[in-house]
């Protein structure tokens, strides 16, 4: 009998770092065979990850949706997303990885819109194909990052911060993301609030399920939090909370053998029957129906794409 899958592995940045655990930039091939074998099992990262596939292709399953990523593409993975990857034999490229703390606190407001665009969006849409000129420009940036990491001369961390910011700005421009048409100072503030809200959901969705709980932590009124959420993402704060709970349930149903009752308790529901009704209300499938359909590769109802 196969061993029961009852958890999803969490990977920390030092497991990929060879020297500096605060920032990683590396070719995929130099990460070694363990990296490729490890990534074929479902797992989560505790850090932001950028993959640049230079040649070959990979099949990438994020949550319950599978994507084929071909040569010369960038894709972006936010912390705590569940994913697994199957690489072709001739794949090569780069991996860039960094935690929240790597970006300077004073840059949080300026980078919030970019992070929301590339890493935190309503579906896994941050796959960017580069043309020949863009490839050259990104190659220069990545090679400069690798040189800074190797030589570690005075001020190299500042240089890495600047290079990473420039990399993300260029990627955001190519993706064509745009902020809502509001005055600049309010856009920066609202983006920062929204990103903080999304991070709070990640930390608390097991036990905080009301918009007012998060608004209190952000020191704003629930109606304002809803307005900011709708302005920047198109859906309310309550929908973000609900979607995050459903997404985690989907992750457990797809990647583990836990029962619906066990998953309900993991997600902070005291009544497993209420959890099942909650899940079916917003996905049009019972937990068991979702598990069977997702594992069979059939389209799933309700939330057709993962909500990050």
UniProtKB/TrEMBL annotation:
Top-rank lineage group of the source organism: Bacteria
Any Pfam family: HTH_18
Keyword Transcription among record annotations: yes
GO molecular function: DNA-binding transcription factor activity; sequence-specific DNA binding
InterPro entries noted in UniProt: AraC-bd, Homeodomain-like_sf, HTH-like, HTH_AraC, RmlC-like_jellyroll, Tscrpt_reg_AraC-type_HTH
Every HTH araC/xylS-type domain range: 195-293
PROSITE patterns, A to Z: HTH_ARAC_FAMILY_2
Swiss-Prot/TrEMBL keywords: DNA-binding, Transcription, Transcription regulation
Cross-referenced PANTHER family: ARAC-FAMILY TRANSCRIPTIONAL REGULATOR, TRANSCRIPTIONAL REGULATORY PROTEIN
Protein name in the entry: AraC-type DNA-binding protein
Organism: Chitinophaga rupis
Taxonomic classification: Bacteria, Pseudomonadati, Bacteroidota, Chitinophagia, Chitinophagales
């Amino acid at each position: 009998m196969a061993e029961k899958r009852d958890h999803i592995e969490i990977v920390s940045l030092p497991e990929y770092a060879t020297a500096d655990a605060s920032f990683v930039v590396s070719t995929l091939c130099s990460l070694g065979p363990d990296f490729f074998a490890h990534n074929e099992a479902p797992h989560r990262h505790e850090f932001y990850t950028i993959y640049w596939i230079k040649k070959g292709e990979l099949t990438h399953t994020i949550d319950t949706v599978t994507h084929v990523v071909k040569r010369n593409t960038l894709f972006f993975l936010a912390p705590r997303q569940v994913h697994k990857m199957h690489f072709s034999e001739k794949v090569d490229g780069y991996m860039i990885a960094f935690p929240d703390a790597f970006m300077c606190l004073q840059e949080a407001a300026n980078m919030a819109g970019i992070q929301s665009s590339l890493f935190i969006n309503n579906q896994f849409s941050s796959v960017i194909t580069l043309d020949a000129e863009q490839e050259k420009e990104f190659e220069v940036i990545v090679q400069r990052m690798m040189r800074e990491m190797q030589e570690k001369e005075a001020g190299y961390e500042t240089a890495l911060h600047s290079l990473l910011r420039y990399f993300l700005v260029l990627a955001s421009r190519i993706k064509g993301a745009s902020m809502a048409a509001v005055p600049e100072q309010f856009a920066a503030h609202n983006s920062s609030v929204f990103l903080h809200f999304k991070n709070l959901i990640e930390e608390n969705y097991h036990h905080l399920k009301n918009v007012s709980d998060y608004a209190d932590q952000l020191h704003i009124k629930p109606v304002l939090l809803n307005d900011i959420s709708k302005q920047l993402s198109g859906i309310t704060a309550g929908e973000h909370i609900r979607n995050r709970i459903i997404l985690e349930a989907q992750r457990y149903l797809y990647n583990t053998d836990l029962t619906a009752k066990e998953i309900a308790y993991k997600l902070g529901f005291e009544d497993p029957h209420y959890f099942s009704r909650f899940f079916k209300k917003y996905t049009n499938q019972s937990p068991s129906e979702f598990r069977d359909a997702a594992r069979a590769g059939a389209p799933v109802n309700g939330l057709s794409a993962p909500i990050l």
